[in-house]
Design a protein that fits this description.
The complex is a heterodimer. Chain A contains 13 helices and no strands. By secondary structure, chain A is mostly helical. About 6% of the residues of chain B have low confidence. Chain B contains ten helices and 20 strands. Helix content of chain B is 22%, strand content 31%. By secondary structure, chain B is an alpha+beta fold. The chains are: A mainly alpha, B alpha+beta. Chains A and B meet through helix 7 and helix 8 of A and strand 6 of B.
Chain lengths: 276, 392
C-alpha cells in the first residue's frame, strides 16, 4: 500500500515536471498558430492559422527573410562539420585509445579545453582572421569553426568506445593476416557503430544549435537558422509568431535524425563476445 | 637441440611501466613439437605468446621463428596463428565469418568455394558444423572456444600459439577436448606452443613442458624430467595432486635428514653439508601405508586417479625406509584415499588405495614406508626464491 502511494507520488512528480518542461514548447506552438493581429491577446481563443509557417517557409506574402536558405545553410554546415569531425576524429580517437605517445594526454586535454573555453574569448580574433582569410560568411569557414564544437566531442566519446573494445580483437585480425589499417576498418570500426551513431547525433545537435559563431562569422550567405530566426524580430514590430514557427521548423532535423538512428543508440552489440 | 628451433626466444624482457612481465626469458621449441608452457597467473605466459606473435615488442632479447630474427616483422608476416584466452571472436559476425576471416585476408586468401570447403572440414572436425550461421554472441562458451580454435586451424601456419584454450570450459568438456586436441592432424603436424596454468593439462599434452615463474623459465624438460628431477620446490609443487610433501628439517653430521623436533631421522641418498636447512620432498603417491601390526607393505599398487606420470615402481632396490605416525584426517578421492598423517609436529599427506586405507580413523597409529630413491632433497625456501634441488 505504502509502496503504491510512493510510486503514485513519483508519477505525479514526473508529470508535474513534464508539464513544467514542455510548457515553453506548447506555448511556442500556440504562438506560431496565432495570426499576427491576435498575437498579443492574453486569452486563449484565437483563430488558428498556418500563415506563420507559410511565411517562414517562403510561401507567404511577407518576404524579406530567406529562412529556407538559412535552413539549408544549417543543414550543410552541421552535416559538414560532423562529417569532417568523424573523418579526423575517429582515427584520432582510436590512436588515443590504443597508444600512449609523447604528449598524447596533453593533446587530448587541449582538445577538451576547446569545449569549456567560452567561445566569446576567441571570437574577436577569429573574426579578424576570417575577414583576412576570406573565410567570413562561407560554408568552409563555418564548418571549420564548428570543429571547435564537434571534434572534441567526437574524439573524447569515441576514445572511450575504442577503449572499451578489447585490443585482442584487432590483434586477432592481425594474426588472421590483415594489416593494421584493415584491422581498424574491418574489426574496430564496425564494433563502435552504435557509438558513432550516438556521438554523431550529439555533435550534430551541438553544431545545429550553435549561435555565437554564425552570429559573428556570417552575414547572409552562410547564416544559419539559429541566427536567422532572430531576423523576424527586427523591423518595425517583432513578429513573435514567425520566430516561434521558425524555431519549431528548425527542431525538425535533429528530431528526425534522432528517430532514425534510435536503434543504434542502444548500446550492447559487442557484449558477450569477449570474456573479461 | 637442433640449430634451427621452430620458435626460439633468447633473453626476452618485457616491462609494462613498472611491472616486469618477462625477465630474460629463454625458450626453444623444436619443429613439430607440442610444447606446454606452465605457470601461475601473472607469470608472463600470455606475454610470451604475444611477443612471439609480434603483438608485443620486447625491450630486450630476440625472437626467432625458423631461425630468422623477427625484430620489426609485423604480426601478419610472421605466419603464426594464435588462439586467445578471451577467444577474441569478432562479435558482429557469425561463426562462419569468424572462421572465414583468415581465408579472406590478403595473406591467406582462398577462393570462396575452396574456403567454404575448408571451413566445412574444420567445422566438422570440431563438431560445430550446425552452428556456423549463428552470431558468436549466441554461442555457449564451449562453442566459442571451438570456433576460436577453428579460426586457428583453418589456415596454414608455421606455429600455433594456444593461450589457455580450455580454461573456460567445464571439467567434462575440458577433458574431452584435451583428448581431441592432440588427435587433430593439423596440431600433430604443426609446432604448437600451448599455455596453461593446469599441470594436469601440461602433463597430458606436452611433448615437453616449460615451467615459467615471474617472467623467467625455471625449467624445461619432458614430463619425466620435471617429475623426477624438478629444478626447485616451485617446479616440484607445480605437478601432482595432492601436492608433494615438503618437510623442513636439517642435515645431521652423519648426513641424515632430521625433522625439526627430532621426531624422526632418515638416511639421505644425496650428500648434503651437515647443519644445512633443507626440505625433504616426498610425493604422496610414493608413500606406502601399513597398520601398526603390518610392516609397510612394499610399494603400493599403482593407483592413479589423476595427475602425474608417477615414478617407475621397480621392486627390490634399496631397502624401504619406515616411519611411524598417527592418522590426522582421511579424505576419500574416489578409488583412492588421501590420508594425512602426523609425525611429531609435521604432517604428511599420502594417497593409498581405498582398500588399504579402509578402517583408518583419526589418531590411528600407522607405519609408513618410503623408498629412498623416491626422496627428493631441496634447499630451504628463501623469500622470492624457492629452494633448489640438491643432487649428487
Amino acid at each position: 500500500m505504502k509502496r503504491k502511494l510512493l510510486s503514485a507520488a513519483a508519477d505525479l512528480a514526473l508529470i508535474a515536471y513534464f508539464v513544467f518542461a514542455l510548457f515553453p514548447v506548447v506555448w511556442m506552438v500556440i504562438l506560431s498558430l496565432k495570426p499576427t493581429n491576435e498575437l498579443f491577446s492574453t486569452y486563449f481563443s484565437f483563430t488558428p492559422t498556418l500563415d506563420s509557417y507559410r511565411t517562414v517557409l517562403g510561401a507567404g506574402d511577407d518576404q524579406g527573410v530567406p529562412f529556407v536558405r538559412f535552413f539549408v545553410n544549417s543543414l550543410v554546415v552541421s552535416l559538414g562539420a560532423v562529417a569532417l569531425s568523424l573523418v579526423i576524429g575517429l582515427p584520432a580517437a582510436y590512436a588515443a585509445a590504443r597508444w600512449r605517445f609523447c604528449g598524447s594526454e596533453n593533446l587530448m586535454f587541449t582538445l577538451l579545453s576547446f569545449r569549456f573555453a567560452p567561445e566569446l574569448t576567441v571570437i574577436i580574433p577569429l573574426f579578424v582572421l576570417y575577414q583576412k582569410l576570406g573565410l567570413f560568411d562561407t560554408y568552409v569557414g563555418v564548418v571549420w569553426v564548428l570543429q571547435l564544437v564537434t571534434l572534441p566531442l567526437i574524439v573524447w566519446i569515441m576514445r572511450s568506445y575504442f577503449s572499451d573494445l578489447s585490443p585482442e580483437l584487432e590483434q586477432a585480425a592481425l594474426l588472421d593476416g590483415y594489416t593494421r589499417k584493415q584491422a581498424f576498418f574491418r574489426v574496430a570500426l564496425p564494433l563502435v557503430k552504435p557509438g558513432i551513431a550516438a556521438v554523431s547525433l550529439l555533435a550534430f545537435i551541438f553544431a545545429w544549435n550553435n549561435f555565437v559563431f554564425p552570429l559573428i562569422l556570417t552575414s547572409s550567405n552562410a547564416q544559419t537558422v539559429t541566427v536567422g530566426a532572430l531576423s523576424f524580430l527586427g523591423g518595425d514590430r517583432p513578429k513573435y509568431n514567425l520566430t516561434a514557427a521558425a524555431a519549431l521548423v528548425s527542431v525538425v532535423p535533429p528530431l528526425l535524425l534522432a528517430l532514425t538512428i534510435q536503434r543504434y543508440l542502444v548500446r550492447g552489440l559487442s557484449f558477450g563476445a569477449v570474456k573479461s | 637441440m637442433t640449430a634451427q628451433a621452430a620458435i626460439a626466444l633468447r633473453g626476452v624482457s618485457k616491462r609494462y611501466g613498472r611491472n616486469t612481465a618477462l625477465d630474460g626469458l629463454d625458450l626453444e621449441v623444436a619443429e613439430g613439437e607440442f610444447f606446454c608452457l606452465l605457470g601461475p597467473s601473472g607469470a608472463g605466459k600470455t606475454t610470451t605468446l604475444k611477443t612471439i606473435a609480434g603483438l608485443e615488442q620486447p625491450q630486450a632479447g630476440t625472437v626467432e621463428l625458423g631461425g630468422a630474427d623477427m625484430a620489426g616483422v609485423e604480426p601478419y608476416d610472421r605466419g603464426v596463428a594464435m588462439c586467445f584466452e578471451s577467444y577474441a571472436l569478432y562479435p558482429h559476425r557469425t561463426a562462419y565469418d569468424n572462421l572465414a576471416s583468415p581465408l579472406r585476408s590478403p595473406r591467406h586468401r582462398l577462393p570462396a568455394d575452396q574456403a567454404r570447403e575448408r571451413i566445412g572440414e574444420i567445422a566438422e572436425l570440431l563438431g560445430i558444423g550446425a552452428l556456423l550461421d549463428r552470431p558468436v554472441g549466441r554461442l555457449s562458451n564451449g562453442q566459442r572456444q571451438r570456433v576460436a580454435l577453428g579460426r586457428v586451424l583453418v589456415r596454414p601456419a608455421r606455429a600455433f600459439l594456444l593461450d589457455e584454450p580450455l580454461s573456460h570450459l567445464d571439467a567434462k568438456l575440458r577433458q574431452a577436448m584435451r583428448a581431441e586436441l592432440r588427435a587433430i592432424g593439423a596440431v600433430r603436424r604443426t609446432t604448437t606452443l600451448y599455455v596453461t596454468h593446469d599441470s594436469v593439462e601440461a602433463l597430458a599434452l606436452g611433448d615437453r613442458i616449460g615451467v615459467i615463474r615471474d617472467g623467467r623459465m625455471v625449467q624445461t624438460g619432458t614430463r619425466e624430467e620435471l617429475w623426477h628431477r624438478p629444478y626447485d620446490t616451485f617446479v616440484a609443487r607445480s605437478f601432482g595432486r595432492p601436492r608433494i610433501n615438503l618437510l623442513p628439517g636439517t642435515v645431521t653430521p652423519e648426513g641424515h635428514f632430521r625433522s625439526p623436533d627430532g621426531a624422526y631421522e632418515l638416511p639421505l641418498a644425496v650428500p648434503a653439508a651437515p647443519g644445512t636447512a633443507v626440505q625433504l620432498g616426498v610425493r604422496p603417491r610414493d608413500i606406502g601405508i601399513g597398520g601398526p601390526g603390518r610392516t609397510g607393505g612394499g610399494p603400493p599398487a599403482p593407483e592413479r586417479t589423476g595427475g602425474g606420470p608417477g615414478p617407475e615402481r621397480t621392486g627390490g632396490g634399496a631397502p624401504g625406509l619406515e616411519l611411524t605416525g598417527a592418522v590426522h584426517v582421511t579424505e576419500l578421492l574416489g578409488r583412492a584415499t588421501e590420508v594425512t598423517v602426523r609425525i611429531g609436529g609435521q604432517q604428511l599427506s599420502l594417497v593409498a588405495p581405498r582398500a588399504e586405507a579402509a578402517g583408518l580413523g583419526p589418531d590411528h597409529p600407522v607405519r609408513l614406508s618410503l623408498r629412498p630413491e623416491s626422496l627428493l632433497l631441496f634447499e630451504a625456501d628463501r623469500p622470492a626464491r624457492p629452494g633448489r634441488r640438491i643432487s649428487t
